[in-house]
């Protein structure tokens, strides 16, 4: 992944307001990148200073390997989480 793509992804992810989430696909579209999987790869390789926990699957669920931590971080921001899924306010 080139530096320009990384910069666009970081900018979009950092712009997600506290207490809100975006899907991998939404982030990809906003950043002008070709796939949601690229967003996932970027987040897996990026330091934790980027608010990675605000990016969820399209169905508003979490990846199993990070679900507990992601839910805890989102709840701390006021996001409602139930049964491993972000629920509408």
What does this structure look like?
This protein is mainly alpha-helical. It has one domain: Arc Repressor Mutant, subunit A (Orthogonal Bundle), CATH 1.10.10.10. It is 45% helix and 9% strand. The protein has four helices and four strands; from the N terminus they run αβααβαββ. It has helices at residues 3-14, 24-31, 36-45, 67-76, and strands at 22-23, 55-56, 81-82, 85-86. Strands 1-2 form a two-stranded parallel ribbon. 24% of the residues are buried. The mean pLDDT is 93.
Helix content class? 40-55%
| Multimeric organization | single chain
How many distinct helices?
A: 4
- The computed structural class is mainly alpha
Let me know the number of strands: 4
Total domains, how many? 1
Largest beta-sheet details: 2 strands, parallel
* Straight-line N-to-C gap: 35 Å
CATH superfamily: Winged helix-like DNA-binding domain superfamily/Winged helix DNA-binding domain
CATH architecture: Orthogonal Bundle
Task: Give the overall form.
Answer: globular
- If strands are numbered along the chain, what order do they take across the biggest sheet? 1-2
CATH class: Mainly Alpha
> Could you give the order of the helices and strands?
HEHHEHEE
Low-pLDDT regions: none
- Cα Rg: 12 Å
Task: State which percent range the strand residues make up.
Answer: 5-15%
Mean pLDDT: 93
CATH fold descriptor = Arc Repressor Mutant, subunit A
């Amino acid at each position: 992944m080139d530096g320009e793509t990384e910069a666009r992804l970081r900018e979009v992810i950092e712009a997600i307001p506290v207490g809100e989430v975006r899907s991998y696909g939404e982030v990809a579209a906003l950043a002008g990148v070709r796939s949601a999987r690229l967003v996932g790869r970027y987040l897996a390789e990026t330091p934790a200073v980027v608010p990675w926990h605000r990016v969820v699957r399209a169905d508003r669920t979490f990846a199993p390997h990070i679900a507990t931590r992601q839910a805890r971080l989102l709840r701390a921001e006021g996001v409602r989480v139930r049964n491993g899924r972000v629920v509408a306010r």
